[in-house]
Amino acid sequence: MSTPNAVASRRARARAGRRSIILLLLAAVLVLGISDWISDGITQDWWFGTGTLTVTSAPAGARVVIDGTSRGVTPLTLDVRTGHHALLLEHPWHADLTRSITIDRQQQIEVSEVLPAAYGTLAVASNPRGASVRVNGELQMGETPLVIDPMVAGRHQIEFRLPKRETLTVEIEVLPGQKVELARDLAPARLGTVRVESTPVRTRALLRDAEGTEHPAGTRVPYGRYTLSVSAPGHDSVEQTVMVDMAEKTVTVSLQPVTGTLLVRARPAGASVSVSRPGSRAQPYRSDVVYPAGPVTVEVRAAGFRTERRTVQIGAGERVVDIALKAITGRAGDRIRDTLPGGALAPATIVLPAGQLTTSTGGENARRISGARFEYPFAMSITEVTRGEWRVFADATGRSVPMPREGETDAHPVSRVRFDEAVAYAGWLTENTGAVWRVPSEAEWEYAARAGDSGSFAGGSAGALCAFGNVADRAAASRFSAWDTIDCDDGAVRPVPVGQYQPNAWGLQDMIGNVAEWTSTCWDSAPGTLDDPGTDCGSRVVRGGSWDSTASGVGYADGEPASREGDDRGLRLLREL
After folding, report:
1. Closest Cα partner for 233 from 294, 176, 192, 189?
2. How far apart (Å, rounded) are the C-alpha atoms in residues 458 and 454?
3. For 558-569, what is the mean pLDDT?
4. For residues 390 and 527, which has the higher predicted lDDT (pLDDT)?
5. Which residues lie closer than 8 Å to 156 by C-beta, 6 or more apart?
6. pLDDT at 1 over 70
7. What is the 3-state secondary structure (H, E, C) of 232-285?
8. What whole-number distance in Å separates Cα of residue 350 and Cα of residue 362?
9. What is the distance between the terminal CA atoms of the chain, rounded to a whole angstrom?
10. Could you give the CA distance from residue 397 to residue 473 in angstroms, rounded to a whole number?
11. Confidence bin at 37 (pLDDT 50/70/90)
12. Does the 259-324 domain belong in CATH 2.60.40.10?
C-alpha cells in the first residue's frame, strides 16, 4: 500500500514529464518556423499576408519568373506574398520582358503582356532552283535560293512550289539571333489529264487550281484537287470538283440549255412586230414562242412612225421589251427653223419625202450608188451653212470664224471648215434644239440634190448648170483664162451669198457649186455608205462641186476625196424628224 509521500512523488514526476514534452514541442515548432522563414516558406506568407497574381501573354507559354524563382508558364494564376517583386517573362521566340509589381494583402492583380518580337534569318534553297517560296501561306519575293532577313522567330510552315515538281511543305523553327538554313530536293510532279465528254459537244472546259490559275481541260496538270468549269453559249454552266490522281481521267458533263420567252410591248397599238435570230429570217412576233438563249432582234413598224430595231439578249425567264415608236413630224415641203438659246436661229431646213434613189449618174467623177432607200422623210438645210450661222456656234463654243476673203459677208457660205468641225457644229445644234442634226451621207446628199431628177446634171445638161449654182463658167474664164470652164454664165467668179440661184424641185438651193459640201461617207467605203463620223478613215467624200468646178465635178453623182479644210469646201446639214 503506497504511502501518501509516494503518491505525491509520482504526481510530481508526471507533471515534470508533461512540461518537458511541451517544451520539446515548442522548441520544435520554433525551429521549424525559423527554418521556413529563412526559406521564404508559408511562415512569411502567414505573417505578412498574400495577394493573387494572374499573368497572361501573347503568345501564351511564356515562363513566369518572380524574384528569380520560376513559378510556371502563362496563362498562370498564383498567390504572391505582399510587397514589391520582380516579374520576368521568358519565351524561346521572343525577347525577355521584365516588370516590377507591388501587391497588397488579398489584392488581385492581372498582368497581360504582348511579348516583343525577336528575329533571326532563314536561308532557303531547292534542287532544282527557281522555286517560289511561301511562308505560312504568304508568297515571298524572289525564288530559291532565297534569304529572308529579318525573319520573325518562331515556328513556320515553308512551302516550295515549282512547275512540274511536287509541292513540298516543311515546318521549321527560327530562334532569335540565329540563322536557319533549309535546303530540299523537289521531286518531279506526277501529271494527269482530265478529258471532258460533254453535251453539247462544243463547250469550254477549264480546270482551276487552288491558286485560281486556269488550265484548259485536256492539258497535263499536277496531281491534286481542281474545280472543273464547263460552259457553252445558251446553256447553264456547270462546276464540280475533280481529283486528278491518275494519268488520264474522263469526266462526263451534260449542260442544260437555257431558254426564255419574249414579251414585246409596242406602241402605237396595232404596230407590226417581227423577231429574228442571227442567220434566220424575221418571223411575226408571238408571245408563246420559246427562244434559245442568245441575241434576237425585234423590229416594230407602224405607218406614220419611225421604225425601230432593237437587239436584246434572251436568257432564262421572260425578257420584256418596251418600244414606243416616234411619230414622224412634218410633211414634204414643210419648212423648219429652230430657235437657239438667246434667240438666234438654226439653219432653215425643208422636209424631203421618203423615197428611193433609183438613178445615180453624173460626170467623169461619178460615184454610182445603188439600192438606196429612205424609209422616212427628213429635213435638209435649204442652203449651205453661212458664215453668220457659224458665227453663232463659234461664239457659244469659243471657236473661231475662218477669215473672210475679200468681199465675203455673213450671208456667204462658211468655208475652210474641217470635217470634225462640221460634226461638232451638228452636235451643238442637236444639244441646243432637241432635234438630231448630222452631216448627211453621200446617198442622202444625192437624193436631196436630185429631188427626183433622173439626169446627170441639174437642168438636164452641163450648159444649164449656171441657173442652179455658181460654177467655173464664162465669168470665171474672164479672170482665169487658162481654166477649162462650162459654157454658161452664172455672173460670179468666187463664192456668192447663199440662195442666189434657182432651187431644185424640193426647194433646196446651191446644191451645185458655190462650195463643195462634206458628207459622212468615207472615200474608201462603198458609195453612199452612212459611215460613223467618229471613224478615222482618212478622207471623206465631198459632193456638189464648187465655184471652181468644171462639168466633171458638178454632176449629181460626182464626188471627190477631202481630208482637210479648203476655201472651196463648206457644209450642209441633215435634220432628222
Report:
1. 294
2. 10
3. 92
4. 390
5. 122, 135, 136, 171, 172, 173, 174
6. no
7. CCCECCEEEEEEECCCEEEEEEECCECEEEEEEEEECCCCEEEEECCCCCCEEC
8. 25
9. 157
10. 38
11. very low
12. yes
Among the four given CATH numbers 2.40.30.170, 3.30.450.20, 2.60.40.10, 3.40.50.2300, the one describing domain 42-114: 2.60.40.10
List, for residues 464-482, the tens digit of each pLDDT value: 888 898 888 888 888 887 7
CATH for the stretch 191-254: 2.60.40.10
Question: 225 by DSSP, 3-state: which?
Answer: strand
CATH class for the domain made up of 335-575:
alpha beta
Q: What are phi and psi of 505, to 5 degrees?
A: -65, -20
Q: Just give the CATH number of 119-185.
A: 2.60.40.10
Q: Look up residue 449 and give its amino acid.
A: A
Name the DSSP class of 344: -
Amino acid identity of 534?
A: G
Q: Taking Cα atoms as reference points, which of 134, 181, 172 lies closest to residue 154?
A: 172
Mean pLDDT of 275-279: 90
Q: Are 349 and 379 in contact (CB under 8 A)?
A: yes
Tell me the C-alpha distance between 25 and 267, whole Å: 118
Q: Are 404 and 439 in contact (CB under 8 A)?
A: no
Any idea what the Cα angle at residue 26 is, between residues 21 and 28, rounded to 5°?
95
pTM: 0.54
The model's pLDDT over 407-443, given as tens digits with 9 standing for 90+, comes to 899 999 999 999 999 999 999 999 999 888 999 999 9
Sequence-separated (6 or more) residues with CB below 8 Å from residue 243: 224, 225, 226
DSSP H helices in 375-461: 387-397, 419-433, 442-450
Give the C-alpha separation, 59 to 374, whole Å: 82
Round the average pLDDT of the chain to a whole number and report it. Answer: 89
CB 131, CB 160: distance < 8 Å? yes
Query: How would you list the strands of the sheet with 290-292, edge to edge?
Result: 290-292, 259-267, 317-324
Task: Please give the Cα distance from 364 to 368 (Å, whole number).
Answer: 11
Residue with cell 514529464: 17
Cβ within 8 Å of residue 235, ≥6 positions away: 200, 203, 255, 256, 257, 258, 293
Helix/strand/coil for 550: coil
What are φ and ψ of residue 518, in 5° steps?
-65, 145
**Lookup: cell for 298:** 425585234
